[in-house]
Amino acid sequence: MVVVEFKVIGIAGVARVGKDTFCESLIDILKSQGIKAQRVAFADALKQDIASLLEEKLGHKWVDKLGVNPYIKDKEIIRPLYVAYGKLMRDLTQDAHWVNKVKEKVETNRKKNIISLISDVRYADEVNWINSTRGGATVYLNREGFHPINEEEVINDPLARSKCTYQVQWTTETEGSTPTFLESLRQQTLHHLNASPELLPGINRP
Predict the structure, then answer these.
(1) Using omega within 30 degrees of 0 as the cis cutoff, is the peptide bond preceding 206 cis?
(2) What are the pLDDT digits (tens) for 63-79?
(3) 13: left (phi over 0), alpha (psi -120 to 50) or beta
(4) Does this model's pTM top 0.85?
(5) How many other CB atoms sit within 10 Å of the CB of residue 90?
(6) Rounded CA gap, 98 and 133, in Å?
(7) Neighbouring residues of 3: CB distance < 8 A, sequence distance ≥ 6
(8) Fewest 10 Å CB contacts: which of 40, 59, 97, 114?
């Protein structure tokens, strides 16, 4: 069985830079080598809270119809509420609320020898927590033409970026590229793993 050193990898970067895509590509690569990995996100608990609020106050069918249910589509409609609620809970708990929400899942995965890939790292305290966690590391994604989309990102993204363990230049691709879109992303991910062999030293790098 392949054993890797890192058990928690955080993926940081501005909105729409491709954090989830990078995460999915990395999970695919690890799976191909018999290594279990799972996406974890700080925002999952936030989305559950917002969904419960909207369904309680506005009605489940109404939320679905407008497409603002966090589990359906069009998160841009509701993004300002995400940001405001997320910041409120961070401020009320001295930045600990969302970190505490994912700790249990990360520890459960660790016991099962599953790598946790946290796909929505946005704050310096989140980066610090991951880096200080046993077997933790962070990757910051850069992508040409993508910049902070709101004041919260303008303030916090440079701080998070400065503390990340690795910096990755993520190339903009479009569907229909040759080789295929997904294979191109896979090759990009492998390229960055080759450039940082200490990140996942147990995997094969073709």
Answers:
(1) no
(2) 554 455 555 555 667 77
(3) left
(4) no
(5) 18
(6) 15
(7) 202
(8) 59
Amino acid at 117: L
| Cα first-last separation, the chain | 18
Tokens coding 123: 């704050």
**Quick one: average pLDDT of 43-48?**
84
In one-letter notation, the amino acid at residue 131 is: N
- 184: exposed, middle or buried (C-beta count within 10 Å: 0-12, 13-18, 19+)? middle
Edge-to-edge strand list for the sheet holding 166-169 = 37-40, 115-121, 8-12, 136-142, 166-169
Specify whether the CB–CB gap between 46 and 85 falls below 8 A: yes
CB 29 within 8 A of CB 193: yes
Token duo for residue 24: 């999915």
Neighbours of 140 (CB within 10 A): 24
